[in-house]
């Protein structure tokens, strides 16, 4: 189940588009029956989470909190209980994504889909801490973006 919470009010979010994007990604990565939580907030709120959990005193586009913190993109998550069928939670600053989309001169929803895919990849254990890991994560993100773009 995809749970979406939107507590910001400055950027219009199409919840159905978000649900469709994430559901398509979950299906493609082999976790169609796993839960994921998505919270849309503002720069001020995400900045406080970014400072608390990453020691970075600035807003960001997305933060991911994996339910299975030791997940490895090369290994399927094995669950013991129904509760374990959870990938984790994602926090998104809609304000930050909107500004970034404008700077990149691309549609907001397109950039938001890219950011959501990035967040889901982190929940699966992908990282961009080295050049090799970054290239690997980007390849996965591009693969998933092609799947999501077929929704439009």
Task: Describe the overall structure.
- The chain has 152 residues and is of the alpha/beta class.
- It has one domain (2-149): 3-Layer(aba) Sandwich (Collagenase (Catalytic Domain)), CATH 3.40.390.30.
- It is built from 5 helices and 4 strands, in the order βαβαββααα.
- The protein has helices at 15-29, 43-54, 94-104, 108-123, 131-149, and strands spanning 2-6, 35-41, 62-66, 86-93.
- A 4-stranded mixed β-sheet has the order 1-2-4-3, with helices on both faces.
- Helix 1 (15-29) links the parallel strand 1 and strand 2.
- It is globular, with a radius of gyration of 15 Å.
- The relative contact order is 0.19.
Total beta strands: 4
The main sheet comes to: 4 strands, mixed
- How many helices? The count is 5
User: Tell me, what is the CATH class?
Assistant: Alpha Beta
Count of individual domains: 1
| Secondary-structure content class | alpha/beta
Shape: globular
Low-confidence stretches: none
CATH architecture: 3-Layer(aba) Sandwich
List the helices and strands and how they pair.
Elements: E1 2-6, H1 15-29, E2 35-41, H2 43-54, E3 62-66, E4 86-93, H3 94-104, H4 108-123, H5 131-149
Parallel strand pairs: 1-2, 2-4
Antiparallel strand pairs: 3-4
Helix pairs in contact: 1-4, 3-4, 4-5
Question: What attributes does this structure have?
Answer:
Collagenase (Catalytic Domain); 4-stranded mixed β-sheet; globular
């Amino acid at each position: 189940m995809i749970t979406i919470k939107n507590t910001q009010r400055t950027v219009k979010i199409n919840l159905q588009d978000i649900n469709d994007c994430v559901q398509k990604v979950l299906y493609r990565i082999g976790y169609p029956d796993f839960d994921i939580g998505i919270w849309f907030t503002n720069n001020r709120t995400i900045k406080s989470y970014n400072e608390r959990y990453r020691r970075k005193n600035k807003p960001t586009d997305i933060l991911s909190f994996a339910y299975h913190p030791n997940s490895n993109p090369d290994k399927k998550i094995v669950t013991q209980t129904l509760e374990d069928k959870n990938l984790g939670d994602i926090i998104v600053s809609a304000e930050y994504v909107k500004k970034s989309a404008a700077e990149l001169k691309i549609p907001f929803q397109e950039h938001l889909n890219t950011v959501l895919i990035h967040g889901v990849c982190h929940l699966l254990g992908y990282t961009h801490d080295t050049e090799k890991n970054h290239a690997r994560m980007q390849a996965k993100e591009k693969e998933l973006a092609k799947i999501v773009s077929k929704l439009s």
